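Hi there, hope your week has been kind to you so far. Thanks so much in advance, here it is:
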Amino acid sequence: MSAENERIKVELEGVPETLLWNLYNRAEEARRPGSRLLDDPRAVELVDRIDYPFERFGAASMAQWHALRIRCLDDEVRRFLAERPGGTVVALGEGLETQFWRVDDGRVRWLSVDLPETVEVRRTLLPDDPPRRRSLACSALDLRWMDEVGDGVASRDVMVTAQGLLMYLPEAEAKGLIAACAERFPGGRFLFDALPRAMVARNQAGALGSSDGRYRAPRWEWGMDVTEYRKVAAASPRITEVRSLRFPRGRGLYALAPLSHRIPGLRSLRMSIIAVRFGGDPGSAE
């Protein structure tokens, strides 16, 4: 295992490389003195340890927006753990997300599911600590990961999260994944973020990149405007509740974030954070 002060070279491309972009923005907000929106010392440590040209992402102009998104997601996971102490969180496509350390209640069980090359990086930089924190090298669409949630875990005690993942899947596959989780984890939850259609269209047209043009996000496949979130319920008859979460208040223009879903013009540019609840018999996972 590498020494703490040794820089570790990370080489990724395509969708897996986005984990470094997300990490960079979290760390930049966490470094901010004074009124920062996110405390994430592990993100800062990781950026300092990784040998990677983070400058290719350009100025961290999106750092505050990333922090607001993360705060919204973290708060919903904390609400789940307050209701289901000792619950299980399955984090699909987690990358180098450090959410476990931000929300840990001392009892949560955490399963990180990601592609093999990403899990290799994660295990190098954030080694597993079983039984409470484990990683599994597996595509989110390979539903065999469901068998790894744990014997005897009640399905109502399971929250599946998909941060920064579903936009890379065609709509049918994204909603199919949600439906499969609803079937396997009755009484459980699903939490994900969705980009607005206009932003996805700009990405597909090649109009989105870093501020200096060196980095361009991989192709996004699925977008959903904030006014469409209720349509997620059609993915499965087991879905009993779909909520669009309210963003926390930010600095400057981002002070409008909590009201962004109500402001014409901003609504079509706003990412949605969607919390889904499953109904059915909340027994043990099969």
In short: The first strand starts at residue 8 and ends at 9. The chain has a mean pLDDT of 90. The chain has one domain: 68-278. Residues 63-83 form the longest helix (21 residues).
